[in-house]
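Fold this: ABC transporter permease
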Amino acid sequence: MVLSPYRMALSAPGVLFTALGLGALLLPYMTIAANRIVAGDGVMAWQVAAPGATWPAVAVIVTGLLMGLPASMPRLRLGGAVLGIPGLIALLIQGAPALLEGAGEYARVSPGIGFWCLLAVFMLLLADALAGIAPGPLARGGMLAAALAGLAAILWSGALSDLSVLQEFSSRRDAFVSAAWRHLGLAFGSLTAAAVIGFPLGVLCHRRAQLRGATLPVLSFLQTIPSLAMFGLMIPVLAWVGTAIPGAQAIGIAGIGFAPAFLALVLYSLLPVVGNTVAGLAATPVAALEAARGMGMTPRQRLWRVELPLGLPIILTGLRIVLVQNIGLAVIAGLIGGGGFGTFVFQGLNQTATDLILLGALPTVALALTAAIAMDIFVELARVIPDTGHD
C-alpha cells in the first residue's frame, strides 16, 4: 500500500492543543454572580448571549484550534492563534452586557475557567508556532508592540468595561496607577541597584578567584532564603536603621514600606547579576584574548572592547532573570506595606473577592511576560552585534 504524498502530517503539540481547547469549550466560559464576593454560576460559551452573536465567535475559536493541526505549516498555526484570541475576546464583549441585563444592580460577570483554559491553549499554540517560524528579534519586537497596542485599544475602548475586574479597576483607578508606579519602581529600581553593585563585583570576581570563591557561596545562600522570610528579615534591620540613624526615616527608611521590600529584592538579584557577569566574561575565547594582548591592549581595554561585548548576551540573560523574578516577587511587598500590585492581591484574599485578586495578578503576569520577551530580544541582538563587528 502506497501512502499518498498529499497526506497532511499533524503536529503533536497542535493535536494536544486542539483536544485541550475543544475540551475547554465544554467548561463554563463566563460566570455571573449576585455581587462581587459570592461565587458565580457558570455559563457555557454558546449561552452567554443570543445564538446569532455567540455561534460565530465559537466557530472562529474552533477554526483557530483546527488551524493549529498541520505540522508543516507554522504560519497557518500562528494564524490560528491570532484568529482564536480575538474570538475569545469577542465572546466576552458579547456576553458581559447580555448576562448583566436584568441581573440586578450589584451583579458581576467574570471570565470563567473555560475562557482562561482556552486563552492558555492559544498562547501555547502561539509560542509553538513562533518557535517553528523562528522570527528575528526585530520581527518579534514588532509582534510584541502590535499585541500591546491591540490590548491597549480594547481596554481603552471600554468594550470590556462590564467585566467585574474592570469594574474593580474603575473604582480604584487612582490607587491602581499609584500601585503600578510603585511596582515598576520596585522591579526596575532593584534591577538597577543590583546591576550597579553586581557588575563591578562580578568583574572583580572574574579577576580574582579567591574573591569569587568567597562571594558566590554567600550570594547563593541568600537565594535559598524563602522570599517571605527575606522580606520579614528586612523589617527589624531597617526598623533599627530608621531609629538609630538621624534622617533615615525622613528619606523613607523604616521597618515597613518600600525600603525593606526594595532591599530584599536587591539581595535576591545579586547572584544572577554577579554569577552571569563572571560566566559571561569567562566565556571569552582564549584566542580573542591572545589577539587583544598581541595588539597591546591593556586589561581595561580588553574588558571593554573584547570580554564585555562577547559576554554581553550572558550578562543580559542574568538581568532578564532578575527582572522577571523581581516583577513577581514585588507582589509580596504588599504584605509589608511596600505597595505594588500585591496590595490588590492581598486585599482580594482578605475580602474573598476573586476579581480584586485578578486586578493585581493580571497586570503582574502581563508585565512579566512583556519583560521576558523584550529581554530575550535584547539578548539576541547582543549576540548579533559582536558577530557583525567581526565580519
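The chain has a mean pLDDT of 87. The first helix runs from residue 12 to 24.
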